[in-house]
Amino acid sequence: QPGTRLEDAFVRFMQALFEKAGLVFVNPDDARLKRATAPLFQREIDDPTTLSEPVRARSEKLDERFHAQVHVRPTNLFLLTDDGREPLDYDDSDGAFRLRGAERTFSENELLAMLDDAPERFSPNVVARPLMQDALLPTAAYVAGPGEVSYHAQLGPAYDWAEVPQPLVHPRASATLVEGKVRKVLDKFDLALSDLAEGAEPVFERIVQEGLGDDVEAAFGEASTQLHQIVNGLKKQAEAVDGSLAPSVEATRSALAGELDALKGRVVQAEKRNQDEVRAQLDKAAVNLFPGGEMQERALNVLYFLNKYDFDLLDRLAEELRPDATEHQMVEL
Fold first, then answer.
1. Distance between the two ends of the chain, CA-based, in angstroms?
2. Three-state secondary structure of the chain
3. Which residue has the higher pLDDT, 20 or 275?
């Protein structure tokens, strides 16, 4: 509706989606909540290194064998200014805080005074956000995507710093929704979901080769063998007359082999044209299952499916998805 803030519209939409689930939505920018987490903000301002350095050390250790998901900053706070939400950086050379990319600086006392007067002007970054969240709402388990699982491995020292229990991290369910028309393509060509992970072309090439059959491949293989046998015989005769003709014979061999390969390529292209409908079917299935080459769950908004299958789809997903499954799931629509 006109005049509605984006965040309010988003909450209303989510409430409509999950009205049966009893979810409670919390606005982290509420001034009352910010005041409740002000003690953690204050500790970060008092001595930023006590949070950032242990997390940095853990991240460097992880980087020795894995990939640290989060790049650790000197300070883990943002400040809301007239120009928007801007990151604060701590400079241990002079003990000042700076707005990143700007000349504006703040002393520790200035920031503490601002925090006391208007805590809603401060917000946490990716390292501090889970701490603030779990300090406000004690969390038994955090259902995380792949990236979140990775960065939670860096945050053990941060939870120790905040004196907040780190929740159990539970990987979220991973699934692909398979529409009926896509299922028909998979069944027709006896394909698994993973077969289309690299796109339709590798599968199409395989189907074209199968369409040509063993006879065509065998015929060109036999022709190549006979070609080399014939040229070998000609080479002996030519060299008997003049040994300097050997390079000319090899050039002829190369040219004839090239022509044979080109002919085989034209046969393959003709079969591909014969299979245009197959290519179109595979392309549509691949685009549906792996849009833009990405997993469907990372690329498609749920609104596409809700618009097509109505909100009842959410009930079906709640029934069919297995939250504890470790393997990727497929839901037939």
1. 32
2. CCCCCHHHHHHHHHHHHCCCCCCCCCCCCCHHHHHHCHHHHHHHHHCCHHHHHHHHHHHHHHHCCCCCCCCCCCCCEEEEECCEEEEEEEECCCCEEEECCCCCEECHHHHHHHHHHCHHHEEECCCCHHHHHHHHCCCCEEEECHHHHHHHCCCHHHHHHHCCCCCEEEECCCEEEECHHHHHHHHHCCCCHHHHCCCCHHHHHHHHHHHHHHHHHHHHHHHHHHHHHHHHHHHHHHHHHCHHHHHHHHHHHHHHHHHHHHHHHHHHHHHHHHCHHHHHHHHHHHHHHCHHHCCHHHHCCHHHHHHHHCCHHHHHHHHHCCCCCCCCEEEEC
3. 20
Counting every residue, how long is the chain?
A: 333
Predicted pLDDT of residue 326: 87
Residue 189 dihedral angles phi and psi, to the nearest 5°: -105, 15
Mutual angle of helices 38-46 and 49-63, in 10-degree steps: 80
Q: 214 burial class (0-12, 13-18, 19+ CB within 10 angstroms)?
A: exposed
250 CB-near residues (< 8 Å, 6+ apart): 235
- CA–CA separation, 26 vs 270, rounded Å? 61
Overall pTM > 0.90? no
| The predicted structure's pLDDT at residue 121 | 94
Please tell me the distance from the alpha carbon of residue 239 to that of residue 247, in angstroms, as a whole number.
10
Strands 105-106 and 96-99: antiparallel
Residue 197 has pLDDT above 80, yes or no: yes
Domain ranges of the chain: 6-171, 178-332
